[in-house]
Amino acid sequence: MFARYQVGDCRIGVVHGDADSLAGWRFDVDALDSLDTTDATSWLRGVFTRGRVDVFASTHTCLPALRAVTHASGGTLGWVANNGATGMPNFRADLAGLCTRIGRSPSPHPSLGEVQVQGAYLALLPVRYDAALWHADFLAQWPAGSAAWLSYWQRISQGPAFAVERALVASH
Fold this sequence. Notes:
By secondary structure, this protein is α/β, with parallel strands linked by helices. The chain has one domain: Purple Acid Phosphatase, chain A, domain 2. It is 27% helix and 27% strand. It has 5 helices and 8 strands; from the N terminus they run ββααββββββααα. It has helices spanning 29-33, 38-51, 131-141, 147-158, 164-167; strands at 3-7, 10-14, 55-58, 65-70, 76-82, 97-103, 113-117, 120-127. A 5-stranded mixed beta sheet has the order 1-2-3-5-4, covered by helices on one side. The chain has a 3-stranded antiparallel beta sheet with strand order 6-8-7, with no helix packed on it. α3 (131-141) packs antiparallel against α4.
């Protein structure tokens, strides 16, 4: 289900969906932002404990989030770093993808946000690519009106209605 790595003293669980499911959505930005119920918060704290990790690095959910997960007492239990989508735009009017960088030193590249966790640095980095080439390739495979075009073209050509500030809310 997940791979565990260590960078410095930071233990990282890498998942596709969430900590319980390959196709899970509990690390989605909306799911993380709605942690106002005891069950959801208990689940999140539980997966950090069971996974024995300081960070969960996730993708799959299409929109990014960098979130601290706190103990009931207020201390930080761990972080969720979700890059959203590397190959598609993540923010309104910005056609870059996004990747998560985890390293022992601060990112030498411009980042949207970076935090230090147990001696490792987590950063969300824009992935710039040739948007015109990507658009042409997409349209060659999925022309206007096709199911994929209906599902993805607006996002690919304009970005989703999502702001950087929402991705970087500090804690839950």
